[in-house]
Design a protein that fits this description.
With about 80 residues, the protein is an alpha+beta fold. It has one domain (about 1-70): 2-Layer Sandwich (Alpha-Beta Plaits). The protein is built from 3 helices and 3 strands, in the order E-H-E-H-E-H. It has helices at about 10-20, 35-40, 55-70, and strands at about 1-5, 25-30, 45-50. The chain has a 3-stranded antiparallel sheet, covered by helices on one side. The radius of gyration is 13 Å and the shape is globular. The mean pLDDT is about 85.
């Protein structure tokens, strides 16, 4: 297993996980259970996504596409 994402945005992590699973990758989101327990404590980078070593490149391509905005909705799609 290799880590391909680390962050603190729960919704972004869940979205990335879903996009990777949609491509058939086996994805593990770590730290999601901590979200509720953190409360007012500013904890950065507590979420991480890991995938199988063989899927690393595909997972990183999905993350790069997400960061470029390839998955964003266009005005006419909303």
């Amino acid at each position: 297993m290799i880590e391909v994402y680390r962050g603190s945005d729960y919704f972004e992590a869940q979205l990335l996980k879903g996009l990777m699973e949609q491509d058939g990758l086996q994805v593990f989101l770590h730290g999601a259970a901590l979200q509720g327990g953190l409360g007012e404590v500013p904890a950065l980078g507590h979420l991480s996504i890991t995938v199988n070593d063989a899927d690393e490149m595909v997972a990183r391509e999905i993350i790069q596409a997400f960061e470029r905005g390839d998955y964003s909705l266009q005005e006419d799609e909303q």
